């Protein structure tokens, strides 16, 4: 019998959180990563990112020995792959890390093991991976008689609520054999109080992409309304508030764009399958990307018309109350605005960021500060409504003519 019941491959936001939830549920878990610095920090009880509740879980499961960070893949009954699947510059899915992970697992996996891919993947990927594994196993001495089985169980979590969502959300298990599906259901049953639904692999792959594409389309509608109303000089916040009084209308909060590793990426996995048919999904992506450009243009106009020399950007993470900078539209907005000839200095205030990302750190006139500087000719730009900014509502800063809201910054802070 393998020492480990579960090995999680990739200890990023999803992987480490998954490893901790499985360990907390009673499994003996190996957490594998190629980053020795990250592994060393985890062994010492340091989370490589902010996430409520996980510090305590890490301490507990290191102490009990249910989580063991490892730099070499061990034998295990189940392997959970949680590596990034970004898009290329041409918006194609980059599955390099998934294939490398599956190939490396195959070198050590014992008979009857199952590889579960939680990473988001295009429809049909699991079946391609099965063919890839069968070819890799063919004629290889010293290997079990059959390749490991494969399943897709897409992650469904929201940064800032990882623990609650992993233990409460419904799960979809995509497997192309009943035996594999049943074994995966038994594995996950201990980790979640939500429903577990079984389907084939391509249905599970499609489900995750449809979920995030749906969210992207809804955000695009809100962002488009915010731009239309603003150009008509109508208060879009009030329009959305009143429209949402209708019992069948629920318009989301607009923002400066869409970021993160899911909603801004996953729709492309569907769009690229049938580019000529995915017109709505493509348009939603274009609208959400354009919202950032539109905000930059509006702020430039305000700066030039009012003689501002300084800018303060309130928040650069991709969403409120997390430290995740991946794909953040606010970071790109800050970088573009800092290059305006009129702007002498640009200040970033973000309580969740300890150092500027490379995109901003290399700019001499961009500074990370803890509070708003008391400068004349300063325009404050609301981008990410972290809850730590709420006490500033009483100061009147966000009600002054020297404040620009890129979306629903003030409305979200007011609750």
From TrEMBL:
The keyword NAD applies. GO terms for biological process: polysaccharide biosynthetic process. It comes from the Bacteria. Residues 312-406 form the UDP-glucose/GDP-mannose dehydrogenase C-terminal domain. One of its GO terms (molecular function) is oxidoreductase activity, acting on the CH-CH group of donors, NAD or NADP as acceptor. Gene3D superfamilies: NAD(P)-binding Rossmann-like Domain (3.40.50.720). Keywords: NAD, Oxidoreductase. It holds the Pfam family UDPG_MGDP_dh_C. Signal peptide: none annotated. InterPro entries: 6-PGluconate_DH-like_C_sf (IPR008927), NAD(P)-bd_dom_sf (IPR036291), UDP-Glc/GDP-Man (IPR017476), UDP-Glc/GDP-Man_DH_C (IPR014027), UDP-Glc/GDP-Man_DH_C_sf (IPR036220), UDP-Glc/GDP-Man_DH_dimer (IPR014026), UDP-Glc/GDP-Man_DH_N (IPR001732), UDP_ManNAc/GlcNAc_DH (IPR028359). The keyword Glycoprotein does not apply. Belongs to the UDP-glucose/GDP-mannose dehydrogenase family. This is Nucleotide sugar dehydrogenase.
């Amino acid at each position: 019998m393998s020492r480990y019941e579960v090995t999680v491959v990739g200890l990023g936001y999803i992987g480490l959180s998954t490893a901790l939830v499985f360990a907390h549920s009673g499994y003996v878990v190996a957490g594998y990563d190629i980053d020795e610095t990250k592994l060393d920090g985890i062994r010492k009880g340091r989370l490589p990112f902010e996430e409520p509740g996980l510090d305590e879980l890490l301490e507990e499961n290191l102490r009990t020995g249910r989580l063991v960070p490892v730099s070499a893949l061990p034998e295990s009954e189940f392997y959970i792959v949680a590596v990034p699947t970004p898009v290329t510059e041409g918006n194609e899915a980059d599955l390099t890390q998934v294939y490398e992970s599956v190939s490396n697992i195959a070198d050590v996996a014992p008979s009857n093991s199952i590889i579960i891919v939680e990473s988001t993947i295009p429809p049909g990927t699991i079946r391609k991976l099965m063919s890839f594994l069968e070819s890799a196993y063919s004629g290889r001495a010293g290997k079990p008689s059959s390749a490991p089985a494969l399943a897709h169980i897409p992650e469904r979590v929201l940064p800032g609520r990882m623990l609650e969502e992993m233990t409460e959300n419904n799960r979809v298990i995509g497997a192309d054999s009943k035996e594999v599906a049943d074994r995966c259901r038994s594995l996950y049953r201990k980790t979640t109080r939500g429903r577990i639904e079984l389907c084939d692999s391509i249905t599970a792959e499609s489900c995750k992409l449809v979920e995030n594409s749906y969210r992207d389309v809804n955000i695009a509608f809100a962002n488009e309304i915010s731009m239309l109303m603003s150009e008509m000089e109508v208060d879009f916040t009030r329009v959305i508030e009143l429209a949402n009084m209708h019992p069948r209308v629920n318009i989301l909060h607009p923002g400066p764009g869409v970021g993160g590793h899911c909603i801004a990426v996953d729709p492309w996995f569907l769009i690229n399958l049938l580019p000529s048919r995915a017109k709505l999904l493509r348009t939603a992506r274009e609208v959400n990307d354009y919202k950032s450009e539109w905000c930059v243009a509006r702020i430039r106009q305000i700066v030039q018309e009012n003689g501002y020399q300084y800018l303060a950007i309130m928040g650069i993470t991709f969403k409120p109350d997390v430290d995740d900078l991946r794909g953040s539209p606010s970071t790109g907005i800050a970088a573009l605005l800092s290059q305006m000839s009129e702007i002498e200095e640009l200040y970033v205030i973000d309580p969740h960021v300890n150092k500027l990302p490379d995109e901003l750190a290399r700019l001499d006139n961009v500074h990370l500060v803890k509070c708003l500087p008391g400068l004349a000719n300063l325009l404050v730009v609301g981008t990410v409504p972290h809850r730590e900014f709420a006490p500033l509502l009483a100061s009147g800063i966000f009600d002054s003519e020297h404040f620009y809201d890129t979306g629903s910054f003030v409305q979200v802070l007011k609750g």
